[in-house]
Amino acid sequence: MGSRINNNVINIKDYILLKDFRMEIEVEKEKNISLSFWVYLIDSDTTKFPATIIKQAHLDITSSAPFIVLNEKMITLFPLLHEHKETTNSSNSASVEIKFPLENWIHVGFEVLTDILRLHINGEIVSEQPQSSSLDKNWNSNGPRKIALVGACADDGLQGYDPPLWLSIDLSSTSEIDEGNDGIWNIVGGKASCRRVFSLDVVLLNPMRQAIDKELEIFASLIYVDNGLPVEKTSDDEDPLLTSCDGIEFSNYDRPGKLLHGRASLKLKISQLSSKCENRLFCIKIEIPKFSGYHFLEAFSHPIRCISRSRNPRTSLTWKRPTTAVEPFNKFQSIWTI
């Protein structure tokens, strides 16, 4: 099973979830195999390595071996029917050391040909390794005749989502936001007579950064940068984040946004001042309630200091990066889609 990414187009019908993947192979008949999948890493510090993405199960005997393995900085493709003594140390495998960028979808492809193993990352060939013909002959004559390539499941510490998407804030769309030299957004908020409407666009993208034509409900909330917890209501019992529609304010809980053709424009107000919250910084978190828990379907704004209209944002609080910032407080997940 392959994927098509030519001309920057992803054909979603070509993909299945990793947990549903199973491919039976007759070794003597099928010499050439190619597969590809998307991977999304949240936090590589808390995962357990090595992680087997696809394993090969021998149908003739009750044994199995890894086929594709992700180590901390290396992805390895093992040959078919190889007796793996050490899954991360094989002279007859194709390996490449790569620093997987966090919070990004990466396209991984591989080919198992008659005499070569080949790995692709984002469409580029990154590793080629000749296969040992003597080893193959030995296994073809004495080893199992059939094997099944089987995808990992939740029990293996991996999660699947189909198709590969991410939610993002279009920073070019923001208005009524003053960004300081420290990268913090200064937004005028507070009492109803003082707070200003600011706007930003949210877009649902595929890994090629193209908007996906989807209609989904989205929800925005105001959280603290240092721990990700919700900002409290004001002393007047107002919700901290409000939606403005035709000049009328609504609690953001009562008026969620909606993606149309993969894009939503949000007009928001903040009622809570940073000075009323021990000068802590805020952040807007946007998520899709239907897919809660998938971190690539969550988007976060820059850190925000909410100031009163009379306050000069250039002389307000300074931002010291917390030990646990908004994006890093997410727990590690590996999201795999074949």
From TrEMBL:
Protein origin, superkingdom: Eukaryota
Entry coiled-coil feature ranges: none
GO MF assignments: DNA-binding transcription factor activity
Keyword Ribonucleoprotein in annotation: no
Keyword entries, A-Z: SH2 domain
Gene Ontology terms: biological process: signal transduction
UniProt-recorded name of the protein: SIGNAL TRANSDUCER AND ACTIVATOR OF TRANSCRIPTION
Protein's organism: Salix koriyanagi
